[in-house]
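Hey, quick one: can you model this chain's 3D structure?
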Amino acid sequence: MNDDIYRPGLEGVIAGETAISAISDGLRYRGYSIEDLAANTSFEEVAYLILRGDLPNAEQFHQFRQRLSAVQVDDQILNIIAQLPNGTPLMDVLRTGTSLLSHWETDVTDNGRDANLNKSERLLSQLPILLSARYRYEQGLSAIPPDSKKSLAENLLLMLHGETPDPSHVRAMDISLILYAEHEYNASTFTSRVVCSTLSDMHSSITAAIGALKGPLHGGANERVMEVLEDVGSPGRAESWVRDALARKVRIMGFGHRVYKTGDPRAQLLKNWCVKLATKEHHRDMEKMADIIEQAVTGEKGLPPNLDWPSARLYHYMGLPVPLYTPLFVLSRVVGWAAHVIEQLENNRLIRPRSRYTGPDHRDVISLSER
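Sure thing. Here's the predicted structure for all 371 residues.
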């Protein structure tokens, strides 16, 4: 082993093994391509696949849906969430809420596979309830309970908006949840594995992962994308805006990826749904503007769009405000985080890398009176 090798940001370093997803040849969950999954399954089916290893049959799917719909959030937790200071970021609400949920979790200290699968399913149902409740509290509205007959995507939009969502919006949300569900050893997932490698619990691992996702270089990037689109303003300004930004060496969020050098396969799938949902005139203008920006950045810098570029527009077309964008990422990625926690614990070794020391050489202590 060569202890002198150092790669900033651990770029290219193989830090572990996983059977959950692969990104070297497109993106695959448990062997299935995301294109195939997005075309032929629902988010609940994909969640089952990521957590349990195989797509469910009809009976397994029915039982899974029943378990999810039976999950509730204790009123005491919702009361605490309601009392958080005004203006508390929704990512912070989810981070705090996940930690709170652990105090009402009877299996919180059980790190066995079955217990962690049960906790994973409960979190999958509980986090949308927490997010939508807090979102409505901020508007002076009452929380809306989930409908046991509706899918996770439909319930999410119903609990946020308070009305039956457009079917095209439901399917678009379902697709976005599928595409955000898992992505190998990204920063937040690696964080969850580091935490549980100490034999900490599921909720601690997920809480830490949410903290990692909050950063603008990870999950928060989709919020920055809307800032770009709002700053550009119109299709007529798009090309000149990009040239000016690149000349000033401004980083344009939503482009480039540490792993996908030739393009993020998720971005094209979601772009197709952006086109479908951009039916209003001002949405069509935004879609045209986004396309001009995309062509300019890709042509000038060779940086194709990543998933954050279309997802911001998609959520905007659904009438969802920017502060919800990264929290929506959490509601999907909790599945991937939980699966990685379970996988890490099945063949665990404490994750404890080394560092290269760059401080001063040996120094002798001088007594306080002589310093």
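One thing worth noting: Residues 18-214+323-346 form a domain with the Citrate Synthase; domain 1 fold (CATH 1.10.580.10).
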